[in-house]
Amino acid sequence: MALLLIAAAPTPPPAPPPTPGKGSVTGLPLPRFAALRSDDVNLRAGPGTRYPISWVYKRRGLPVEIEREFDVWRLIRDADGTEGWVHEATLTGRRSLLVIGGERVLREAPADNAAIVARAGPGVVGRISHCAADAPWCEVEIKGYHGFLPRAAFWGSFPGEAVN
């Protein structure tokens, strides 16, 4: 009679208790936004290469929210709420956005009646150039078009957050 042993996925090591609002490794604010550095980023079930890959992102510039830090690993959440661990080298601090909802209008100035620069559908990724604290509009770039987009039209910044 042969004995078959099946190894369960390893349990993630306990992370040190985080300082409220600050990363235990970088000291940077948590949560915070970052973007995927390349078109091929592995999302893992735990903080290490021995953990299985749960998902592979194929979208450079996609904004993600960093929720925790453990050594060189970051626990992230995407706009759909999917969470997992990625290596710090796969992230960049450059701020990006993901258009949400329906079709959105990029305007020449931060006003509903300003001239239309471009239209962007849901799921389009762009870059945040500047958001003043508590401003309802942000200056953005989407596929080479520069203009203003209401903060409520995209995912990638916290309400009232200043982005420079």
Task: Describe the protein's architecture and organization.
This protein is mostly beta strands and 164 residues long. The protein folds into 2 domains: 32-94, SH3 type barrels, CATH 2.30.30; 97-155, Roll (SH3 type barrels). Helix content is 0%, strand content 41%. It is built from no helices and 14 strands. It has strands at residues 32-36, 41-44, 53-57, 63-70, 73-77, 83-87, 91-92, 96-99, 104-107, 116-120, 125-130, 137-142, 145-150, 154-155. The strands form 4 sheets. A 5-stranded antiparallel β-sheet has the order 6-5-4-1-7, with no helix packed on it. A 5-stranded antiparallel β-sheet has the order 13-12-11-8-14, with no helix packed on it. Strands 2-3 form a two-stranded antiparallel ribbon. Strand 5 and strand 6 form a beta hairpin. The chain is elongated and about 55 Å long. Residues 1-9 have low confidence and may be disordered.
Average pLDDT taken over every residue = 91
Percent strand equals 35-45%
Q: Strand count, sense and closure of the main sheet? A: 5 strands, antiparallel
Q: Helices and strands, in N-to-C order?
A: EEEEEEEEEEEEEE
Looking at how many chains there are and whether they match, the oligomeric state comes to: single chain
Distance between the termini: 67 Å
- Highest-level CATH class of the largest domain: Mainly Beta
- What coarse outline follows from CA principal-axis ratios? elongated
CATH fold-type name of the largest domain: SH3 type barrels
Uncertain runs are 1-9
Radius of gyration: 19 Å
The number of E-state strands comes to 14
Going by CATH, what is the homologous superfamily of the largest domain?
SH3 Domains
Structural class: mainly beta
Structure annotation, total helices:
0
Name of the CATH architecture of the largest domain: Roll
Q: How helical, in percent, are the residues?
A: under 10%
